Amino acid sequence: MPLSSRHLLGLNGVPKEDIQLILDTTKTFREVLERPIKKVPTLQGKTIVNLFFENSTRTRISFELAEKRLSADAINFSASTSSVSKGETFKDTIKNIEAMKVDMVVARHAAAGTPLFLTKICDANIINAGDGIHEHPTQGLLDLYSIREKLGRLEGLKVCIVGDIAHSRVALSNIYGLKTMGAKVSVCGPSTMIPRNMKELGVDVIHNIDEAIQENDVLNVLRIQLERKAREYFPSIREYAKYFGITEERLEKNGKDVVIMHPGPINRGVELSSGVADGLQQIILKQVTNGVAVRMAILYLLGTMN
Amino acid sequence: MDIKSKAIDAEGFSRIISRISHEILEKNKGTKDLVLIGMRTRGEFLAQRIQRKIKEIENIEIPLSVLDVTLYRDDFRTRMKQPEVSVSNITTDITEKNIILIDDVLYTGRTVRSALNAIMDFGRPSAIQFVVLVDRGHKELPVKADYVGKNIPTSTNEEIKVKMTEVDGEDAIYLVELK
Fold first, then answer.
1. Rounded to whole angstroms, what are the CA distances from B95 to A173, B48, B69, B126?
2. How many interchain CB pairs under 8 A, A with B?
């Protein structure tokens, strides 16, 4: 049974069966990553362009590795070193790349909706690698997979997303994906960082971090995006760390075996204390490994579709 | 799909497993360095049967692994249906081992070609021998089975259906006609 769409633009509206298929397929690629030779010939002859109009280390390397491990030909494009800096329009850039006969495009852009626009101007399969503050579906899927791997299921689990929900594409993809899979989702953070539409999405809002720890199975702790003017939303980093930072003392006080996740990069001492970031309850580096497997699964499912 | 004839019944099936197990032991002069690899789905169960039979004969349990070759197939672009992948489970180090690769039907030879590629990604075995329950002819690649349960010549609009109790509730091999 193939996926119902030939693009992956977000997790909003993606049916449960599709998410299930991606997570099940990820398991296969998780196994491939444990082999002495971590490469399979599946996408031989396919050309994939990684179109990054915004900085990224983890996601770009993760996609590139996934592509190489499926034997696809991967081309990297970053806006800063391209003709975009000579004034070429976005559409012209894409049309030129498409004319070189590519099969798939992995796109990251600061403007929400860029991947959707790409589907309208080119024929390749489009994968969203993060568009503005809209969605980051592969991160959402790797988070779902990591939770399922750790706790064995998603249905009925309580997951709280902590931090700057309003400016987070990771949060939104997590919310859509988790809700579809039957988890109970809440968010926690300063009220300036919680969007107003949470109720419409069926998400509870918690403002007390201790309460969030006590009531949930998983905390997905987001990065405070200091480069995106996050500091305009709370008085000081120290105050944020005091009220919403997760520390060993806090976990111990609430006495709960809650699983700690983080999409990286971590601001140590802000949203997570160093002890928690390296502690026994976190699965942060597992998320990174699973990220490669999830991306392999998505590339495989889209790339072998007729 | 019409069943044309039952080529092998349950008794015949068990005799084939028995004979092949003896042949494996004879050709390899025992069980030293042998590793069974069954190809999903029915090859896995055939491998388990051979493993049990050899245990009966020699009282030694040969290591058994399972291989899924979907990622190595060469027909992604021509097939209408997307193949479903599942997980390979190679539990032993296969370097310098004698691999007994097991599948149910040998037809075009393309599946065993993908299996050979897949195995090489797990290590460098000293030899690979190929067991097949039915050789139905029409090979498209230069491969040959070392142990054959039964040769059943077929035409291209016929198909071999291998049934096994583990998944189908009975042990039998049918020759069916495709419509």
1. 43, 21, 19, 7
2. 47
**Domain architecture of chain A: domains with CATH:** 16-135+289-303 (3.40.50.1370), 137-287 (3.40.50.1370)
Whether residue A186 contacts residue A180, with contact meaning beta carbons closer than 8 Å, is answered with: no
pLDDT digits (tens, 9 = 90+) for A240-289: 999 999 999 999 999 779 999 999 999 999 999 999 999 999 999 999 99
Closest Cβ–Cβ partner in B82, B89, B117 for A41 = B117
In angstroms, what separates the C-alpha of A202 from chain B's closest C-alpha?
A: 34
pLDDT tier for residue B75 given thresholds of 50, 70 and 90: confident
- Looking at the complex, report in whole angstroms how far the Cα of residue B79 sits from the nearest Cα belonging to chain A: 8
Q: ipTM surpassing 0.85, yes or no?
A: no
* Cα–Cα distance list, A166 to A43, A163, A227, B171 (Å): 37, 9, 15, 60
To the nearest whole Å, the CA of B72 is away from the closest chain A CA by 6
> Would you say residue B176 lies in a domain?
no
pLDDT digits (tens, 9 = 90+) for B107-166: 999 999 999 999 999 999 999 999 999 999 999 999 999 999 999 999 999 999 999 999
Cis status, amide bond into A265, omega within 30 of 0: yes
A38 to chain B: closest CA residue: B121
Q: Of A5, A42, A104, which to mutate for an interface test with B (greatest number of B Cβ within 10 Å)? A: A42
Put simply, the answer to whether A25 touches B85 (Cβ < 8 Å) is yes
Residue B119: its pLDDT value, please? Answer: 95
